[in-house]
Amino acid sequence: MWFENFSNKNCKQCYACIRVCPVNAIEIKNEETKIIEERCIVCDECYRACPQKHRLSKSEVPIVKHFIKNKETVVASIAPSFASVFWKYSHKIPSVLKHMGFSYVEETLVAAQPIINEYFKYINKNDNKNYITTLCPSIINLVEKHYPELIDNLIPVISAVTCHGRIIKEKYGKDVKVVFIGPCLGKKYEARFEDSIDAVITLEELKRWINQENISFDDFEETPFDAISNYNRVFPFISENTNYFYDSNKNKEVVSVDGEEDCIKTLKAMVNNRMSNVVFDMNFCQNGCLQGSGIEDDGISPYERRENIEVYSKQYRDIYGDKKDNSYDEILKNVNLERKFQSKHVPLKEPSEKELKEILKSMGKFARMDEINCKACGYETCRDKAKAIYNGYADASMCVPYMRQKAENKASVILSTTPNLIGIIDKDLCVEEFNKAAQNFFQVSNEEAKGVPVIMYLDEDKFQQARDSRKKIIKDKIELPDYNGVLLQNIIWSEKDQIYIWIANDITEEVNKDKQIQEMKINSVNMAQEVINKQMMVAQEIASLLGETTAQTKVTLTKLKKLIEEEGIKQ
Predict the structure, then answer these.
(1) What gap in Å lies between CA 441 and CA 454, rounded to an integer?
(2) pLDDT above 90: percentage of residues in the chain
(3) Are 133 and 119 in contact (CB under 8 A)?
(4) CB atoms within 10 A of CB 140
(5) What is the separation of C-alpha 485 from the centre of its chain, rounded to a whole number of angstroms?
(6) What mean pLDDT is reported for the chain?
(7) Please, which residues have CB within 8 angstroms of residue 534's CB and are 6 or more apart in sequence?
(8) Is 56 in contact with 47 (CB distance < 8 Å)?
(9) Contact, 398 vs 18, CB < 8 A?
(10) Using the 8-state DSSP alphabet, how is residue 223 labeled?
């Protein structure tokens, strides 16, 4: 496979890639982001937008290294935009590449003239038909996959890259390995269908490879390419080809179009037959190949890149301007410049109106007024998004306003129904918000409480303590006589949000119950003590009575005993 899918390990589900994809070729399903290959036009906008820099393409540098290691004859075809990247070291690129293992190094530019000559044939046609140049692979992908009705408008000519690859195979032999080095990620896709290109690496990948090899340009001499071209080196510039066409007699107007928005608008206008007899020189990247998807975004402006190429071009003309390479003239006779295009369009399944409405309802769109078409999900309209869901390319959860509303509703339900008292206090110790339970406790509405210093309700020192110590205050029991209540409060300082979060449980009822139980216990003890005291008194009275009767009984018995003894003596 020519591309790598996104790594979901660090994906934050921010939808940045979906929002920038001009053809909705990215799906998010079950929280996994994937490229839809049959829709992708290889513009690399997703990589540029991704904050995690999830790379779309596989590097083919290891393939090239394998060719070199196996002692293959490896020929480099390097695009003219290389001078915009390597600047003053551009003249040393041939010697550097040969040091790295390339057998021959040629500029792709040597194959430009035959392609331009073919374009002139269509510029001079008297058929009133519109045509599209076919140098940009993303434009070709866009037409074949999304505007198949315009396939006949593509000029059926191979690109300069393919032409050069075929020339090299004729010149050095069918078994040589041709490696294209350029500013365009889309060339990796183009090479899949072309036998003359064995590998494609971008200028960004080449620059990285050179750095990994610890190569210093100062150690190399300036050397010429193995094939010299006198064609204009500003070939990558937008409008340069157009200006070149203007300098000739022609039957059609030639117009340059660059950037995804203008290209798509132009294609739509062509579909609707709003123009005629025009040749559109299209480049999907803004500013053409100077900002290609294979060039590192290093902050260099298109103007600076253009200047780099113009300086290099002037120097090259001064050195090699009087030399002409005719070695390809005979070879070109054996190179087929024709290319056939075919529809690769995979139409989306169309839901019925009933099915569409059901999907819209799952996104919280119950009426037309709910379809706000904010494009936050990457789709032009809510209905387009619903169709993507129907085709399995998207989830309802990708609707940002709906998910936000849903989250806010859930949060609102939680805040309004929880028995906990919750408050948001700003860094200046003023109330931002009280939930319903807190409003009821303090007998105040949220509007009345907002902006009021928290000291009007609570001890602000506790809040300051939480902020200064950076420690949460947990289960702090406080009594609020003004509100006849007792709370168990928690105070959290959020450094990131610069707010205090106050959460409290109203334990007034529990405390009052505890007091009642304690009073009941005390009363019960008092009652028990009173009963015991009474019982002691009764016991003492009984003991006293028992003591008196016992003494009287003893006296009586003693007297009786004595009387009986006396009578016994008498007898």
Answers:
(1) 14
(2) 47
(3) yes
(4) 26
(5) 49
(6) 85
(7) none
(8) yes
(9) yes
(10) -
Beta-strand ranges (E) seen in 364-472 are 421-426, 431-434
Tell me the residue type at 195: D
Name the nearest CA neighbour of 337 among 121, 104, 73, 74. Answer: 121
Please tell me the distance from the alpha carbon of residue 202 to that of residue 94, in angstroms, as a whole number: 16
The sheet that has 131-132: what strands, in order across it? 131-132, 278-283, 253-258
Q: Are 133 and 283 in contact (CB under 8 A)?
A: no
CA pair distance 382, 52, nearest whole angstrom: 27
| Residue in the block written with tokens 């020339």 | 167
Helix axes 137-146, 260-271, angle to 10 degrees: 40
Handedness of CA 168, 78, 284, 295 (dihedral sign): positive
Length of the chain equals: 571
Helix, strand, coil tally for the chain in percent (to 5): 50, 15, 35
Residues 273 and 290: their CA atoms lie apart, in Å, by 31
Contact by Cβ (8 Å): 157, 170: no
Residue 210, Cβ neighbours under 10 Å: how many?
19
Q: List pLDDT tens digits, range 91-126.
A: 999 999 999 999 999 999 888 888 888 988 999 898
Residue 467 CB neighbours (<10 A):
17
Alpha carbon dihedral 433, 438, 439, 443, in 10-degree steps, equals -140
CA atoms within 13 A on the CB side of 269: 14
For 321-352, where are the alpha helices, taking DSSP H only? 328-332
Helices (H), 13-159: 16-20, 45-49, 61-69, 82-86, 93-99, 112-123, 137-146
Q: Which token pair is 181?
A: 């080095």
Reduced to 3 states, what is the DSSP secondary structure of residue 527? helix
Beta carbons of 274 and 148 less than 8 angstroms apart: no
Q: What is the Rg, in whole angstroms, of the alpha carbon atoms belonging to the chain?
A: 45
Element (H, E) at 28: strand 26-29
Q: Where are the beta strands (DSSP E) in 427-507?
A: 431-434, 473-480, 485-494, 499-506
Determine whether 568 is exposed, middle or buried from the number of CB atoms within 10 Å of its CB (0-12, 13-18, 19+): exposed
Q: 8 with 31: CB under 8 angstroms?
A: yes
Over the stretch 344-360, which tens digit does the pLDDT of each residue have?
999 989 999 999 899 88
| 339 contact partners, CB below 8 Å, separation of at least 6 | 134, 156, 157, 158, 162
Cα–Cα–Cα angle for 456, 457, 461, rounded to 5 degrees: 85
**Tokens representing 420?**
């906990």
Assess contact for 490 and 503: CB atoms under 8 A.
Answer: yes
- The amino acid present at 122, given as its one-letter code, is Y
Among residues 96, 97, 91, the alpha carbon closest in space to that of 77 is found at 97
Q: Which of these, 171, 533, 158, lies nearest to 336 by C-alpha position?
A: 158
The pLDDT value given to residue 280? 94
Q: At a CB cut-off of 8 Å and minimum separation 6, what does 149 contact? A: 271
